[in-house]
Amino acid sequence: MALIICDKHGESVVSYVSPAIADAVNGVRHDVDHIADVRLQVTEGAVGVHPIDSEFASRLQREFGIDPNDLSALPEEQSFEILCELKLVCAMCFNEWTQRRTR
Ligand SMILES: [Zn+2]
After folding, report:
1. CB 47 within 8 A of CB 39
2. From the CA of 8, how far away is ligand 1's center (Å)?
3. 88 alpha carbon – ligand 1 mean position (Å)
4. Which distant-in-sequence residues (6+ apart) come within 8 Å of 9 by Cβ?
């Protein structure tokens, strides 16, 4: 599992999220619209669940032909391509951000 050094939390586990969500977590942009989870199987057997915003979901549809309403486990090759588009954030910062926005 990847680690990140966070200004706020020190050494922390990493979350892969869509770029707009990463910006929101880092306070660069105010908020993102609807969030969905995409399941990516990157290494055999290991499926990660990654939060993406609806803007990113429609990009997946355009570029990869993925139905945003059916983001369940994708083929490994496609998953890897998508994972490369995602950004790393501190998992603890992400959790705090999620709690703030659901309040
Ligand atoms: Zn953090």
Report:
1. yes
2. 5
3. 11
4. 90, 92, 93
What is the dihedral angle through the alpha carbons of 11, 15, 18, 20, rounded to the nearest 10 degrees?
A: -40
Output the CA 20–ligand 1 centroid distance in Å.
17
Answer yes or no: pTM beyond 0.70: yes
β-bridge mates for residue 87, sequence order: 17
**pLDDT tens track for 18-55:** 999 999 999 998 888 778 888 877 666 667 788 999 88
Q: How far is the CA of 7 from the centre of ligand 1 (A)?
A: 7
> What is the whole-number distance in angstroms between the Cα of residue 84 and the centre of ligand 1?
21
Residue 97 C-alpha from the chain's centroid: 13
Whether pLDDT at 64 is above 70: yes
- Classified as helix, coil or strand, 91 is helix
